[in-house]
Design a protein that fits this description.
Protein name: FixH family protein
Number of strands: 11
CATH topology of the largest domain: Triger factor/SurA peptide-binding fold
Structural class: alpha+beta
Distance between the termini: 70 Å
Domain YtkA-like: 30-104
Mean pLDDT: 87
CATH architecture of the largest domain: Orthogonal Bundle
Number of domains: 2
Signal peptide: 1-19
Largest sheet: 8 strands, antiparallel
Number of helices: 9
Keywords: Signal
Shape: globular
Length: 306
Amino acid sequence: MRKRFMPAVLLLVMIVAFAAVMAGCSSGPDYKIDVTKELYFQKEKASPFEIKVTENGKAVTGLSVSVELSMSNMDHGTVKAKFAEGKGGTYSADVKVPMNGKYEAVFNFEKGGKKTEKVISIEVAKPEGVAKVNGKWITNEDVTFYKLINRLQLEINREAAKKNYSGAQLDEELAYLDSQEKLAEDKNQLLTQIIRLRSMAMLAEEKGHKAEAAEVDAAVEKARGQYAQFPSAQALIKQYGEEKFWTVEKQQYKLIVLAQMVQKDLVDQAKKENPKAGDQEVYYQAQKKYEDLLVSQINSLKVEIL
């Protein structure tokens, strides 16, 4: 059999063409994508999705970013989304996916007329709650419990108002408490309460504080005694489930005791810095430092809200 040889000129043309194609595939910037806020599946609802784009370890800003998502193992079509630029090379979008599972994410970047495509695989899971603080979930049950705590406080305040006021003053107080009901059940308000307490409890532990069991038990018993004075509060606790309530309440008081330790540190510090100041001024200064410290602590944590 006679062997056929490819003409040298044709071979050279093919090599050059292949090299040109390869160069075209790799000529764009070598962007690195890190998922900074994971995408979750929420039925009939979009979830926040955030990435950070870097090149040679440096954040890349000023990009136009879009993504096409498709499931790796089944066909549910393609989900498209455009990202808005945040700070420090972060880009985010609200994305609604059809179900949880493995996805292929095809990112398209454009800057200064240059286009780059990058493909990564992501795992889309069902959320275990409504928010995360340093990877620990805030569950729907957590939010429900805080809603109950707010309702308990409102009912206690109503009973106290009826005992202490009458006439127009009572009407005014009750009207004010009624106006607070909606705020007490607002999801964002409830999440803020939870995040504030958890953040300061974490800070207390970072400072070496520990909530001893005896101290927590004493705080819980004090709360139990306070609730026992108000029939409306007792009724709400019974409706929730008494055993369940006090189990969760004990967990919350561990956090409260830790946060109080930070407050005490700041009061002691304020007294030391202002030895001639009265108690009111000392507590004012301590509270101001507490709020500043709280903001700093929250900013240092990774907080994700779905």
